[in-house]
Write a structure and sequence with these properties.
Helices cover about 40% and strands about 20% of the residues. By secondary structure, the chain is α/β, with parallel strands linked by helices. It folds into 2 domains: about 5-95; about 100-189, Winged helix-like DNA-binding domain superfamily/Winged helix DNA-binding domain (Arc Repressor Mutant, subunit A), CATH 1.10.10.10. The strands form 3 sheets. Strands 2-1-3-4 form a 4-stranded parallel β-sheet.
């Protein structure tokens, strides 16, 4: 599992404290002298990292910014606040995943478009995410192996049945018959 990253901007003392205990942390830490230094070393897509500073004057994404200007604070409380903010970021990220004009909310398991919602099963969500993540066409054998964990020599129609039912649900609810496409090479979104 990838560690989350905490970016510490213009707060050298905090960096030094966390650096001393870095082996015990569930996240990695990086230090930057100022906001420009951070932006020069990171692309614009820093939505899953946390930024810590002792200044509220940073112009970075506020949902990622954790400002410690009211110190002292115990190290345990500090780490607890960091971890809580990572959980919050993950929850917010999972709330709105855009796939082909639809919005998938992993927290509530709703698939929606134009204020119309459809409740999905865990397996349906897993299937949609897999097809969306890998933009190429997926054979039945590929889906059996990677979604259901079946051996390739097992004769089953599980994949076709699930995709048929999912396509029907989406078609009936959203009048979209082309969300999941079927071709001779496999299925794709």
């Amino acid at each position: 599992m990838n560690k989350h990253n905490v970016n510490i901007i213009n707060f050298n003392l905090l960096y030094e404290i966390l650096y001393e205990i870095k082996e015990k942390l569930s996240f990695t830490i990086s230090k930057y002298e100022n906001e420009k230094d951070f932006l020069d070393h990171n692309d614009k897509n820093y939505g899953d990292c946390l930024i810590i500073s002792n200044s509220k004057k940073l112009n970075l994404i506020k949902k990622n910014l954790l400002v410690f200007d009211n110190l002292p604070l115990s190290i345990n409380k500090l780490i607890e606040l960091i971890n809580i903010n990572f959980i919050r970021l993950k929850f917010n990220h999972q709330s709105k995943i855009n796939i082909k004009g639809f919005e998938l909310n992993l927290n509530s398991k709703f698939f929606s478009k134009n204020n119309i919602e459809l409740k999905l099963t865990e397996k349906e969500i897993e299937l949609i995410l897999y097809l969306d993540l890998n933009k190429n066409k997926h054979s039945v054998l590929d889906l059996q192996k990677n979604i259901w964990g079946y051996a390739s020599d097992l004769e089953t129609h599980t994949v076709e049945t699930h995709i048929y039912r999912l396509r029907k649900k989406i078609g009936d609810k959203f009048k979209d018959k082309n969300f999941i496409i079927s071709s001779n090479e496999g299925y794709y979104i």
